[in-house]
Amino acid sequence: MTKVLTSALVLVAMIVTSTMVISAADKNNSSIPLSPVRVALAVEQMMSPVAWLPGTVISRNDARLAAEVSGRITWVAEIGTNIKKGEPVVRMDDTLIRQESIEQDAVVEREKARLVFAQREMKRLKKLASKSNAAQSRLDEAEAESHVTQSNLRAAEARAKQMRDRLQRMVILAPFDSVVTERFLTNGEWADSGKTVVRVVDTQQLEVQARVPGSNLEFVAEGSEVELRSFNTFAKGIVRAIVPVGDDRSRLYEMRIDPGEVNWPAGTTVRVAVPVSNERLVTAVPRDALVLRRSGITLFRIRTDNTAERLMVITGIASGDLIEVKGDVKTGDRVVIRGGERLKQGEKVRIITSGQEE
Questions:
Q1: What is the DSSP track for 165-197?
Q2: Quick one: which of 60, 63, 278, 301 has the fewest CB in 10 Å?
Q3: What is the C-alpha to C-alpha distance for residues 180 and 173, in angstroms, rounded to an integer?
Q4: Tens of pLDDT along 22-66?
Q5: Distance (Å, rounded) from C-alpha 115 to C-alpha 157?
Q6: Predicted confidence (pLDDT) per residue in 320-334, tens digit
Q7: Coil, strand or helix: which one is 59?
Q8: pLDDT given for residue 1 in this prediction
């Protein structure tokens, strides 16, 4: 009897001890903080597969300014100088042309004086002729002289205007707001008419230049939106123009794209996502939802009880921040976009929203 009682007491003690241990474990587990995560919804969206083609940011206004008259250069704006439209970029020695202009103005004044005299002479002869005191032939001669003098005056005025125009062209002005990027001639050098002196580039009016195969033209048109990428920066561009003439060798067609608000400098290498087929409906998630491992690509879906479920997926078409996923992902699923790198299968999480601290 004593042995039975002792055994019963030992059994009760073991049960009590086990209950206390389990209670302590539950208490410790409840004190463990939940992993904070941010989530987004999987969506259905129309996308099309694309080919990433090379492109370059170029200026819509890129000019090589040449001398319009021959002369010696006295000043050229330094490389990197910002020039406003209408401001001087190059100055040339105008001493000889200025002297020729003064000489031509003197010729104009001389012809004006001769014309005044010829007209007065003609008036006097007309009065005498009316009184039959002068021969008609003399009057005809005076009228002819007046017409010749008028012609000489117009020719002299035209030459004077040409000289003034040449004098103005001794200064090369910026055709648009720009920055000086190259100097082909410098101070003291002689510039023949038509010789390139300086290059200026508009750094504000920019666009992307890309060349696409003819097979892609049916899937893109003027006004189409395309994705642009330069290093880790993405942007949306609008196709401004497609040149409908292909290159004889490459068989590629030039496309110009407005990059929008992105601040890529001229000369930046970019990639352009050009559609290669028609759009189709896909399930897409933010790129940040993907967890890349050697074993494959996964993402975490949050169940209704706020526990994490690891899913293997296969990626497809990408557009902007979204990417197509194939697998057990449905529209409306909550997927982890931040904090999923250290999550484990079945782990309970705390969902945070924008503005909350993790």
A1: HHHHTTEEEPSSSEEEEEESS-TT-EE-TT-EE
A2: 278
A3: 12
A4: 444 444 445 567 888 999 999 998 888 888 899 999 999 999 999
A5: 13
A6: 788 999 988 999 999
A7: strand
A8: 46
Report which of 109, 126, 121 is spatially closest to residue 145, judged by C-alpha positions.
Answer: 121
Q: For residue 354, what pLDDT band results from cuts at 50, 70 and 90?
A: low
257 close to 239: Cβ distance less than 8 angstroms: yes
Please say whether the beta carbons of 225 and 47 come within 8 A: no
Look at residue 24 in the predicted model and tell me its pLDDT. Answer: 47
Residue 77 contacts residue 180 (beta carbons within 8 Å): yes
In total, the chain counts a number of residues equal to 358
**What value does the mean pLDDT of the chain take?**
85
Burial 193-230 (b: 16+ CB within 10 A, else e): eeeebbbbbbeeebbbebbbeeebeebbeeeeebbbeb
Nearest to 243 by CA among 231, 234, 256: 256
**Contact assessment for residue 90 and residue 76, using Cβ atoms and an 8 Å cutoff:** yes
* Contact assessment for residue 287 and residue 322, using Cβ atoms and an 8 Å cutoff: yes
Tokens describing residue 91: 């100055």
| Structure tokens given for 334 | 């909550």
Between strands 35-41 and 349-351, the pairing is: parallel
User: Which tokens sit at 53?
Assistant: 């083609």
pTM above 0.90, yes or no: no
Task: Yes or no: say if 67 and 195 are a contact pair by the CB < 8 Å rule.
Answer: yes
Are 158 and 38 in contact by the 8 Å Cβ rule? The answer is no
Tokens of 85: 């439209």
Residues in contact with 64: Cβ distance below 8 Å, sequence separation at least 6, in sequence order: 184, 196, 198, 199
| Residue type at 256 in one-letter notation | R
User: In whole angstroms, what is the distance from residue 42 CA to residue 290 CA?
Assistant: 12
